[in-house]
Amino acid sequence: MSNDHELGRYKGEFGAGEVPPEYEVEETIEEHRTLATRVVSTLKRDKLALFGAVMVVLFVLTAVFAPFVAPHDPDDQFGFMKSPMSHSSGDFDGDGQAERVLHVLGTDSFGHDILTRIIYGARVSLLVAFATVAFAFCIGTTLGILAGFYGGIVDSIIMRYVDFQWAFPEIILGIGIIAVMGGLGVTNVVIAIGIAFLDDFARIIRGEVLSIREEEYVTAARAVGMGDIRIMFKEMLPNAVAPLIVQATLMIPFAILAEAGLSFLGLGVKPTTPTWGLLIADGRQFIERAWWISVMPGLAIMVTVLAFNMLGDGLRDAFDISQEEVE
Amino acid sequence: MWRYVTKRVAHALFVMWLVATTVFFGLRAIPGGPIQAMLGQEATPEAVRQLRGELGLDRPLPVQYVDWMTDLLVLDMGTSITSSASVTTLIAQAAPRTLSIGGFGVFVGLAIAIPAGVIAATNKNQLSDYVATVVAFLGISMPAFFVGILLAIVFGVWLGWFPVIGYNPLSEGLEPWLRSIVLPGIAVGMPYAAGVTRMMRSSLLEVLDQQYMRTALVKGLGGQTQLYKHALQNALIPVITVAGIQLALVLGGTVTVEIVFGIKGLGRLLVDSILDRDYPVTQATILLISGIFVFMNLLVDIAYTAIDPRIRYGGEEA
Amino acid sequence: MAPPVLEVENLHTQFHVNRGVVKAVDGVDLTIESGEVVGIVGESGSGKSVLADSVVGIVEEPGEIVEGDVRFNGESLLEMSDAERQRIRGGQISMVFQDPMNSLNPTLPVGEQIAETVRLHQDVGESVSLPAEMKRKILGAAKNSEAWRRAIEMLEAVEIPEPEARASDYPHQFSGGMRQRAMIAMALSCEPDLLVADEPTTALDVTIQAQILEELQSLKDAFDTSILIITHDLAVVAETCDRVNVMYAGEVVEKADAETLFANPQHPYTQGLIASTPQLDDPDRELQPIEGNVPDLIDIPYACHFAPRCPESNRECFEIEPAFRNVGEPGDDHEAACLRRGSEEERL
User: Fold this and answer.
1) C209: which of C115, C176, C201, C224 fits an S-S bond (Cβ 3.0–4.6 Å)?
2) Strand C335-336 vs strand C325-326: parallel, antiparallel, or unpaired?
């Protein structure tokens, strides 16, 4: 190159990379944010998620402290089929004096206060939902880890089953399992729905494991002689936890809906425990005279499910997971 | 393409076989044995033996299995314990009801969801988008049977526009039939529509971001043409997936909605048979429902070939 | 004398984001005469793609052209209505993108996509709307139309083998190089006066690159089209361009004929760029990377955008906006925007 101005031949006051002091610019480095910080900042930003989180906490507290929150006892009987915001008058506590009792959400055909039953119903519904999701989580995750980690035949077999189940309507599967188990009751419901929900967890964790499997820290762990099981549970699982949490949060509303559906059909928990599904079923024959008996528990389900969905969506954003990964 | 279709059909048949086998073994896996369960209190040894013989449960397992499979092929599903009617007859009566409701629900659901999703995406972050998103959110938060109850109360009881109980078969007239399936159909279709709307919206938004939409822009294509001719076909591909998956929801929903509206469809048949321990009916119903489901999935798979040329013609690099 | 095909005058394109205003194109002048191939060379972040988008009129939200003018054959594009600009796009000014994989609609046959351009801009009596297209499909008339024939002609022109058969194929059945050729066919189908090619070969294998560039050259002659090439690859520039503009951080810093630029680069940035490019015919030469990073385009506080990375910068460089001056040999039409270059009197 023939030119009389080769780069750098004439040095300036400020060399390459040097800047007069008044033009100095701070470099901003993106900080690494932990899981917890991300959740908190998402909740602060996303109003819907925050709303969901608050509602969820409220529900859980209500369910746990039901006896303290509920105005009455779920089996107490007052006036029959009272409409919402009305009163029953009578001597209900056996003290010889008549009281006026307010029924915020009305009473049912047996005179039970609906608000009370809904609050107590929250206990069972949420309990069953959490137990179901926990059950599905444990088994599904184990299956998924095994499939992803070992690959080959193990993977094929497990994934075939999961694929088959994944496409199947969950309620039908649940009903089928209940039919086989031959009885009603909480345990059966948990197992039935839990099995129906396995597929989601299994797929997610398998996907994560497949991508983590080749990471260096896994190879390192193996090199040090860590047993397979330890690797799976101590190295891989903690790193794959985020989408699992999102999935769990999103599955709880499904579990609530599934349990409600089963109970409504009469195939769920035993008829004495008031779960929301049963409450709705109770009121079905009275929709002409006392619509609130079915509608109130239904609204409760709706709000709860909505809250969990909002929270789950927000968490999904926080952990930056694409829509396809988590259904 | 035909290779693809054949593969899918073969897969569907395989799944059906798997289900039939599972049902076969499932029945015999009932704790205490199905006979005990069925007879309950009256389980005297003679009664047990007799019922066993009737149901053919005393023969060796492989024989039973072959019998079961061959029976299925000729659609002989035995006799109902409770009503002594042929199971096939019972199912033939119940199935059209379920299918009507489900079909209506899917039809209405799609008719609403796809335009709603498109509108939401093209008016992103404006009022119509928010409304659609919120309604969709609500839709997936309510179980189908609850929607059914609400509809029954509002449109059946209060407004009296539609019947709240019962089903009018098509053979008795188009209008009564429609009137009896509108409410349950919508109840089943709403949660379905909600899911599809969300997918349509997000899929379309993603497609609009694609490079080939820029190409269309640069060619000088107008907005409408771009949207319908270029974007929509691409955006519908994942929507079909979701529409197919959600059909499971519709089936599940129909089962519960039937109870709400007192319609004697497959759902009612299934539940009653379980409570009555009428196992031949239970078996058959589960099989049929699975069959419907597998068939629907097959249809969805085939729909893919119509929409996505990448499936129709496998890729080839020159 | 006919007006230049393209005249860009003092163009400023900015993006309003949360953090501030990104001045992607910060005062750029550019001219393309009829039949010329002009290149814009720059690294990522130089604003070259935004410049291309601004010319074609497809700058995306939240960007907008805030100052300056773009004139096409003498007429101002910015003063036209949206509808008029839309008519010109695709017909008289067309564009080819970097990524052939995703630039074609996967669900329409390639021939159809080319035919669409023809139908849109040329008077063949066929509509592009969806109903019209469906009618054509149903009646089986798609393959018989004038536009389709033209599409096949174009595919032949870009040397795609068996064009009649290939036109019915879908994009995923084409290889990367062929897809880019199809894009070019589509872009040239209406014999535009100007073709804007944004990194046309970046995503392709090296051997295919050479073919495509050759293709562009011969097509340019055949269709009498001027070309504006955007690239970061000096080799592409050396191969195809008549004139070159070097861009850095939103500004053009040097303009010259391609030959002159490579023989006698003047602006410190250009010199740095060339010095840091490996050259096959001089394998032992030491590579000299340019220190530092491309600046954040939001509110650059100093006058010459390159000053912080320039080894020759003085205080004035940070404070006085460098104007273009003649550099290099006289009569070369070679300009650079640098206070430390140019004739003795001008140089600081």
Assistant:
1) C201
2) antiparallel
Q: What angle do CA A105, A108, A112 make, to 5 degrees?
A: 85
Which residue shows structure tokens 């997000």? B202
State the pLDDT at residue A16.
63
Using CA atoms, how far residue A218 sits from A35, A201, A240, C314, in Å, is 21, 22, 13, 53
* Contact residues on chain B for A309, CB-CB shorter than 8 A: 137, 140-141
Outline where B153-276 has alpha helix (H).
174-208, 211-219, 223-225, 232-260, 266-275
Which chains does chain A touch, 3 or more C-beta pairs < 8 A? Answer: B, C
Report the candidate in C79, C49, C10 with the shortest Cα–Cα distance to residue C228: C49
What residues in C contact B229, CB-CB < 8 Å? 108, 128-130, 133
Between the alpha carbon of residue A205 and those of residues A38, A54, A129, A151, A157, the distances in Å are 21, 28, 21, 13, 16
Reported as a pLDDT band with limits 50, 70 and 90, residue A324 is very low
| Cα–Cα distance, B207 to B236 (Å, whole number) | 10
Which of B215, B313, B315 is opposite residue C104, by nearest beta carbon?
B215
User: Token pair of C163, please?
Assistant: 């064009």
Q: How far apart are CA A39 and CA A311, in angstroms?
A: 10
Three-state SS at A189: helix
Q: Is A12 on the interface with C (CB under 8 A)?
A: yes
State the residue for tokens 């068996």: C162
Q: CB–CB of B152 and A287 under 8 A?
A: yes
Q: Decide if pLDDT at A1 tops 60.
A: no
Q: Which residues of C touch B224 (CB under 8 A)?
A: 129
Helix%, strand%, coil% for chain A, nearest 5: 65, 5, 30
Contacts of C291 in chain A (CB under 8 A): 16-17
Q: With beta carbons under 8 A apart, name residues in chain A contacting C266.
A: 3, 5
Task: Residue window 95-124, chain B: list those with CB within 8 Å of chain C.
Answer: none
Residues in A 24-53 with any Cβ partner in C closer than 8 A: 25
Residue A232 has pLDDT above 80, yes or no: no
- The DSSP H or E segment spanning C253 is strand C251-257
Question: CA angle, corner C159, sides to C153 and C163, nearest 5?
Answer: 50
Torsion angles phi and psi, residue C232, rounded to 5? -110, -5
Q: What is the C-alpha separation between B31 and A177, in angstroms, rounded?
A: 12
- Fill in the DSSP letter of residue B308: -
Are residues A206 and A232 in contact, defined by beta-carbon separation less than 8 angstroms? Answer: no
Asked if the Cβ–Cβ distance from A305 to B141 is below 8 Å, we say: yes
Q: Looking at the predicted complex, does its ipTM rise above 0.90?
A: no
pTM score: 0.79
Q: Is C266's Cβ below 8 Å from some Cβ in A? A: yes
Q: Which of C75, C219, C113, C249 is nearest to C156 (CA)?
A: C219
pLDDT tens for chain B, 318 residues long, are: 677 788 888 888 887 887 787 777 777 766 656 666 666 666 677 777 777 776 666 677 777 777 777 777 777 767 776 777 777 888 888 888 888 888 899 999 999 998 888 888 888 778 888 888 888 888 888 888 888 888 888 888 888 888 777 777 777 777 878 888 888 888 999 888 988 898 888 888 888 888 888 888 888 777 776 777 788 888 888 888 888 878 877 888 888 888 888 888 888 888 888 777 777 788 788 888 888 888 888 888 788 777 777 766 654 433
d(CA B189, CA C236): 58
- Residues 129 through 158 of chain C touching chain B, CB cutoff 8 Å: 129-130, 133
Nearest chain B residue to A304 by CA distance is B141
Interface test mutation site (partner C, options A1, A10, A24, A27, max chain C beta carbons within 10 A): A1
